[in-house]
Amino acid sequence: MSVTFDRIPCTVVTGFLGAGKTTLIRNLIENLDGKRLAIIVNEFGDVGIDGEVLKGCGIESCPDDNIIELANGCICCTVADDFVPAIDQILAREPRVDHILIETSGLALPKPLVQAFQWPAVKARVTVDAVIAVVDGLALAEGRVAHDHAALEEQRLSDDSIDHDDPVEEVFDDQIACADMIVLTKTDLIDADGLALAKERIAAHLPRAVKIIAAANGQVDPAVLIGLGLAVEDDIENRKTHHDDELDHDHDDFDSFVIDLPAVDNADELAQRISATAEAENVLRIKGFVDVANKPMRLQVQAVGSRVNHYFDRAWAPGETRQSRLVVIGEKGLDRDAIERMLAA
Ligand SMILES: Nc1nc2c(ncn2[C@@H]2O[C@H](COP(=O)(O)OP(=O)(O)OP(=O)(O)O)[C@@H](O)[C@H]2O)c(=O)[nH]1
Questions:
Q1: In ligand 1, which atom is closest to the CA atom of 215?
Q2: 286, 302, 308: residue to mutate for ligand 1 pocket, most atoms within 8 A of CB
Q3: What are the extents of the domains in the chain?
Q4: For 215, which of 31, 81, 286, 319 is 20 to 30 Å away at the CA?
């Protein structure tokens, strides 16, 4: 008698830079009682910050070894080299993993990633449970992504010089187009009108009837998001995106680099500098870890646009090099020298 194993379900979490993917996943890890999890974290930029944040959870059902970081790129472009080996590594785990979560980079196009699940080596063993798009409620309410289409159209008609291909909007659109469920984040930062506006803006981009779940600080009942059993790999071709005709998508609309800073004296002052820099230089995202002089703890810094969060996340380990490294991400053409000068000032 042969023994057959069911395919392991995998939830793909997409969402634009800083929308709240890591926060949501961290919450899922903490509340998915009894399920053994493995997580693949894909980042744009060389420094694996999200992986570090998730490893800090210390949850028994998701040990650090089960968190695999695929930094520096886009999983869908490196299926054979990175993704399949990562899946192999997960499937070899004992005891058996019950569920896989993938946190894609904030610039990832979900369709090519899901298409990677059609590879025979993957399809035989793993199925895409659902694609969840995390969208930034605050950014939506403020019109930083998914602008009001009617207003934009009016503006477009009155000004021929506007560039109509907005890469941020395109990535956002593609992530929404591929989603089976949408989590609208940061609802603690918006009022009822903002929430209604955010939902309206999503609806304007939604090609299908998809549920929108409002969440604050990543708190969503895992039963709503996990175990949907949708086998998305069999349906993904039907989801129309901006990049359907591109064989190669190399994210060349965006730039990212790492800045090393000396130790800082004051965390609040650094946060102000980061905010001013993001504003002046049109930076989409800054994140990293910082050495604050005379403090035993490491400072974690997270900026989405000019909004900055910072907090001491853990003590520097004995023997660990205390360093300050920030990843900066924005649209192509970032002025690296100016950003470096402003952050170091
Ligand atoms: N107030 C508030 N802040 C949030 C919420 N969700 C996320 N954040 C904050 O937003 C920032 C970015 O959150 P992340 O979870 O790192 O976002 P991400 O989508 O993983 O970011 P990337 O991986 O860089 O694309 C962090 O400072 C979070 O603490 C929320 O619901 N409310």
A1: 31
A2: 302
A3: 8-238, 254-344
A4: 286
Question: What 3-state class would DSSP assign to 308?
Answer: strand
Residue-wise pLDDT tens digits, 154-172: 666 666 554 446 788 888 8
Alpha-helix residue ranges (DSSP H) falling in the chain: 21-31, 49-55, 84-91, 110-115, 120-123, 137-141, 149-158, 167-177, 192-205, 222-225, 267-281, 336-344
Closest residue by Cα to atom 7, ligand 1, is 20
Q: For residues 14 and 335, what is the distance between their CA atoms, to the nearest angstrom? A: 28
Q: φ, ψ for residue 35 (rounded to 5)?
A: -90, 130
Query: Is the distance from CB of 117 to CB of 11 less than 8 angstroms?
Result: no
- Ligand 1 pocket test: pick from 12, 13, 22 the residue with the most ligand atoms within 8 Å of its Cβ: 22
Which long-range contacts link 158-165 to residues 24+ away (Cβ below 8 Å)?
none
Mean pLDDT of the chain: 88
| Fold type of domain 254-344 | Hypothetical Protein Yjia; Chain: A;domain 2 (3.30.1220)
Whether ipTM tops 0.90, in short, is yes
**Structure confidence at residue 151 as a pLDDT band (50, 70, 90):** low
| 284 touches 168 (CB < 8 A) | yes
Tens of pLDDT, residue by residue over 240-260, are 888 777 655 556 788 889 999
Per CATH, which fold does 8-238 belong to? Rossmann fold (3.40.50)
285 closest CA partner among 168, 146, 122: 168
- Expressed in angstroms and rounded, the spacing between residue 153 Cα and the centre of ligand 1 is 30
CA of 90 to the centre of ligand 1 (A): 26
